[in-house]
Amino acid sequence: MTSPDAAVLREVSSLSVEQVGAVRAIYEDAFPAELRADFDALLVDRLLVRVSPAGEPEGLALVRALGGTGWTFLRYYAVGARGGGVGSAMFADLRRVLAAEGGSLLVWDVEDPDEPGLHAHEVDEHRRRIRFYERNGGVLLPVTDYAPPHGDDLAGHAPRLRLMCAPLGDSALPPTRDVVLAAFTLRYDLAPSHPAVLAALASIG
């Protein structure tokens, strides 16, 4: 593993077949089968890969533009090895890349540690992930009933989620209502009047 400042983010289309295979391995190792879409199906979105100077993929960020808002949705984020600052460095690089392209907000969802029925290790893992994002500029939005449909992506599995975002560059944090509407209508293709959208809006604290 390289130092956190030595690697760069590259488009997956610029990688070799062997490097893409390593990216697939990082993805499949990071997410259990019930929480991941088919890897090949991911390539309809933009896949950015952290690559060391030696050419070794170290992490991935799958993103999708939220229409013409200048906002970006982070679908998947994973590093090949935790520790050493790689995850934080890659997240900072991602925010810089998107800001340089004119973006103003990064949006994503995370599994809710307060979901009933979770094992203790799952609660700890969900909380650890939220703390990671908060340390790196992420904001956990006060939306307690956030249940976007995942369709066939997750084979019917529907984890309880929370919504997070991070301003890019010098941009200010937008109203929570606007972020909720953008996530549902532009990421998940729901109408503003859909019951899931209305329930999320009603749960804003």
Give a verbal description of the structure.
It is a single chain. The protein is of the alpha+beta class and 205 residues long. It has a domain at 60-202: Gcn5-related N-acetyltransferase (GNAT) (Aminopeptidase), CATH 3.40.630.30. It is 34% helix and 21% strand. It is built from six helices and seven strands. The chain has helices spanning 17-30, 39-42, 86-100, 120-135, 176-187, 195-202, and strands at 8-11, 46-51, 57-65, 71-79, 105-111, 139-140, 161-167. It has a seven-stranded mixed β-sheet, sandwiched between helices. A hairpin with a 5-residue loop joins strand 3 and strand 4 (71-79). Helix 5 packs antiparallel against helix 6 (195-202). It is globular and about 50 Å long.
Short description:
The protein has 205 residues and is α+β, with helices and mostly antiparallel strands. It is 34% helix and 21% strand.
Number of strands: 7
Which descriptor suits the 3D outline? globular
Q: Largest sheet, order of strands side by side?
A: 1-2-3-4-5-7-6
SS-derived structural category = alpha+beta
Averaging pLDDT over every residue, what do you get?
91
CATH topology of the domain at 60-202: Aminopeptidase
Please write the CATH class name of the domain at 60-202: Alpha Beta
**Unreliable residue stretches:** none
End-to-end C-alpha gap: 42 Å
- Secondary-structure element string: EHHEEEHEHEEHH
From the alpha carbons, calculate the radius of gyration and give it in angstroms.
17 Å
Fraction of helical residues: 25-40%
CATH architecture of the domain at 60-202: 3-Layer(aba) Sandwich
Number of helices: 6
Largest sheet geometry: 7 strands, mixed
